[in-house]
Amino acid sequence: MDQEGKTNFSFASIAISFFILIVLPLTITGVIISKGVVKVGEEATQANLRILDDSQKQSIGGRAQTVADAVAQFLSDREKDIRIASILPRDENSYTTFIRSNTRGIIKSSKVGMIKIPMPLYREIAFLNKSGMEVLKVTNDGVVASDKLKDLSNPANGEFGNEDYFVKAKALAPGEYYMGPVVGRHVSKAEFAGEKRFDGIIRMASPVFDSNGFAGVVELALEYVHVMEFTDHIIPTEAGMFFAEVNADDMNYAFMVDRDGFMISHPSDYVLRGFDANMNPVPVMNEQNYQELSKNGTGAMNVLDMGFLDENLPKIQALASEGKSGSLTYTVKDKRIFATYAHIPYYGNGFSKPQGFGWIGMMVDIDKYHHLSQEKVKEIQLKVERWQKSSIVVVFVSLILLFIIALILARGLYRSIQSARRPDEMVPLEDDED
Fold this sequence. Notes:
single chain, 23% strand
């Protein structure tokens, strides 16, 4: 073999070595990354291409019952509070301490995401003497001035229309208590769009007795937002997850109905019963006024009057009033609906069996849910394609650069080897060529 052949062989060997050590690993890595991106995309696609199967329906039903049981437990715990309030010393310090020491977290949306902040359980605590006159009232803002106290022996003096909690509590035996309906100012659709939310209370009252007999009534105003918290942050198909806001238009939400059929918790607060600016109850939606009231969001929803939209809602109310829980899959106006309902097993004073407090509902538009799933899949597939193309471009450009670098390094190393050889080491190479 001549000197030129040996030279070319030596340079080729070095260049191939650099290619194997530098370029080939990158090529293999690029192929692995590309396949990995495709595999991850396929797994994400399968995870999001969901249908509402029987196991998921059963899971949603179980979740509804869990929420219903939690609401019942929450209300039972409030019984303890009204009993404690009835034996508290009737002074400013004791009532202020009670208000400040009873708090519970609520979920809010913020710039950093979803957060939980503490909020007082009660808006106020008050003592009314045996004539019905408030003699001491403490709110979250402090002690109410004496000239602001009211005579509740006349229900018309209530903050929210006719409130007869004093009259009803006065007639109770020691240890009993009264729990009223949800009351508050109605929130219209326009106000809701402006981020105003329903701000209601539930009155609780219990008679107080001393050595002389009936001494008066103690009253608590439970912040109703704590009850709404149980359903307001749930998307039924997202097990174990909670959301700051839920969009009712997605038809994938939870709600709460009282024993009389009124919607008392819903992603759209403007369907909840409340009082207008003149302290009159807003009208209840029915077949005759639904178009107008639903458009403006100025009416209350009672499922007993919603049969013209969905005949199953009054049926569910009837079943829940019998203390039953269950689910239905049905079609209404070309929509396939899955609805589950869970009876709230709370039977405190005034909430007798089998009706109890009401029921928890969860509703899913099956076709819309599947459509949203398919949209998510398309979005993932587009991202996978972009990632794959980007990775191929990066690897291809890197290969070209590294190939050039490998040639430069190989040539440089070869020249270094050649220049390092002594002259007498070159002679045998020429002899071999003869």
